[in-house]
Calpain catalytic domain-containing protein
Amino acid sequence: MDVHKLEQDAVSLAKRAVQCDQAGLTDTAISYYTEAADALLNANIAGSRLPQLREKVAELLEMERARFLLEKAFDEDGENNHEEAIDLYMEAAEFCLSLTKRAPDLETRNKVTSLAKQAVERAEALKGDAPKVAASSAASNQSPDPVRNIAVKNASGSDDRRQPVQVASGYTKEEIKVLRTTSYINGREYVPFLSVDVREKFALPLPFNDKRLLPLSAKQKASLNRWARPDEYMSDPSMVYAVSPLAIKQSIVSDCSFVASLAIAAQYERRFNTKLITSIIYPQNRKGDPQYNPCGKYMVKLNLNGVPRKVVIDDLLPIGHHGELLCSYSINRNELWVSLLEKAYLKVMGGYDFPGSNSNIDLHALTGWIPERVDLQDPEEFDPDKEFLKIQSRFHKGDCLVTTGTGELSDDEADRAGLVSTHAYAMLNIMEVKGHRLFQLKNPWNVKRWKGNFSDFDTVHWTPEMEKALSYNRKVAVDNDNGIFWIDFDSLRKFFKIIYINWNPALFAHTTCIHRTWRAGEGPRKDRYSVANNPQYRLDVTASGPSAVWILLSRHIMDKDDFADNKEFITIVVYKNEGKKVFYPNDPKPFKDGVRINTPHYLVKMTENKGRTSYTLIVSQYEKSHTIHYTLRVYSSCPFKLSPIADPYNPKCALEMTGEWKGASAGGCENNMQSYNRNPIYQVNIDNTSTNHLLVELRAPKEFNVGIAAVPVSHNIPQPESAMKKFRSGPLRRGYCILELTSLPGGLYNIMPFTFYAGQESKFILNVSSSCKISCSRIQ
């Protein structure tokens, strides 16, 4: 690099900048000022000995920052956002006046003084209009109501397909509490992203600094030289040069799934000319393109814990001893979007010492697209032909994003195959050619490729016809290891464990969601015998023809250790039972019984036929031990209604009694004629003349089969003789049973809990819930 040439270029460009500035050619002047700063910066890096070079670089960078402040003020002014414009004009004026004290000559001092004067004059002019502006805006200004489709709105960037229609809007107090609680992730607060946030203040008089640096991984710490801003190691920083999956490179951070997610999202944006990934980065220009900000402040919109949330970062990045970035980056020189998106995501996840994730989670955070997990190793659920045709068709239509991951491989297996154990790969293409089903994958490392069938080393399967059909040149590819390779479907199923698919929510016409908390103390630790205390929801679907209905359960995560060692196994169980409350996990038999898995997202997919159907949805955990916060979202191509199942019982009227079968009172069931009537009896008094609802629950050791009988003693108003019949809980069940009595007239009722065999001694718990005030006492 010719240092003298760079110095000459800097001087020449600076002179042109001043000439254009004096001629009023502002945009051209800004361009020349920027180029002059870049040339000076390069000269400085190359070892220039010009006196006060560093000061000159700093001066030009400060001028660039001043012009950025003014540019943002002009933008707000042009959009009639007068209050924001006034603030920015005044900040620009103050910054310019501070520069006059450091100006090296009279000409520079006059220039920044003139800029300050223009900014103040425009601010004062706007202030003169302020009362009128305030009055007009007050008439129309309303507090924006949060909407429930916030997680899918604009999830597809500028996708011209219809977005889901909202079934309901507005949050309940309970939901607001859930979203507020789960805003705190790894000790930092990430509030929900609102439309007003696009006007976040990015133009600042001093470079923005976050509260603290992100924690580094052990490898980063060993190689770290310094933290630096882009203008310290780049000649011409830009946010986006060309969005391409080929340019994205993972370094020493263990976030392969996230980098694979970036790659596949970038490819989608490029293929379909849709701002899927770049649209979440701010600040943006009027075209919606993310901008480089010389003030160093950025905002990223990520879908986290039920809603899109606002993540603010600075642009300090870790640099190694050889000037290399110690984070993921774009191989397109001077391009920042990869590194900044990674920084924003890893800030939420607790730092660069990230324990790892999967692409379903990462892509959902980046895009809001619906995550589905396909287990390649499940012989019962996985249909190779069906899945291949589905993925191939939907991938080429742009309906989904696809990544895949290897399972556990020994070092020898991984070396022979050219793969990495438990590693994520982006799926760039899927084709069927001459009977061969092929996937094109990308290793986020940008190096290390498959060595088996259809690899770059395979001279058997790559015939001239196959190469032509796939626009592939094996001889060129074999000498260029960029981590991209073709692999056949059979090999994929052998060496890879999971396919992660994220579906475009714009495929569905309707959506809504519910945010809730399920406390650890609500119900038993295991729901093997009872789901009475599990969260339950009624889903009413009205279909005019074949329709898709998908249900997504998302558990909120607030701690890095929860990511690293996820011990919460969740699922959704669906019952086709007219939307009634379910008490026993297998009665009625589940329509869809999900597998409990320890990932934050679980998806149930259903197909509806014409007509109206009501379902019960139950949230379930395996061995519940912690309070969880979750979001339940439904996507549907037909109208539906989702609501918590209404409980007719008044919680203030619930009673709990502890009893015991012992000695003579352990009478057993009716098969034991002589002892049955000696079982404990509780008398419930319903002191009214209305119709009532009563629920009796019996809990006992799971080794015992138990039941409940209820006998009317008297009624407060005359009833037909049939009203005196005996009620039973049905077949005896292990450890738990219920007796639900509806439309019950007021009066006295005797309740008898019993076991199957006489002589089975144990304590038990009897819970009585009622729609009205009752009293209950043991009479035997």
